[in-house]
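Quick start: what a row looks like.
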Amino acid sequence: MMEAMTTSVPLRSPCPPGACNCGRDPLLEMPDADLRILRLTREEEKRLLARLEMLKDLNDLKHLQQRMFEQLGVRVDVAPGFNEVRTMRGIAIQIDELPGLCRKTRAAIPAAIRRGLENHPEIAFELLNAHDLLRDT
């Protein structure tokens, strides 16, 4: 009776052979592995990227960073780069290495965050101010 009630969580389909080095299969073989990242199906990834592009403010970005860590185990750090920030490319967006995280997804998340910052430059200014814009003067 209980078996009929349990539903399996959909996992991300494997990448084509040779196209990615995400380590999905070895991750599935590990008995005590954290499989949260595999819950990010292609459809869910599209939703996440669209949400990252529609940032409202800096608190919204921080909230999404926290949710990505809680639900997927993905740690995303967003901070001004070490050198002068003239464009959104000067904002450093770092994603920790994580087994099971597809290389395309690892590149798509920072790109979506940058698009969100470009859509709302005031968020970038908030980020710069939060990290002491005038620290070297």
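That is the whole record. The two ends are 68 Å apart (CA to CA). Residues 103-119 form the longest helix (17 residues).
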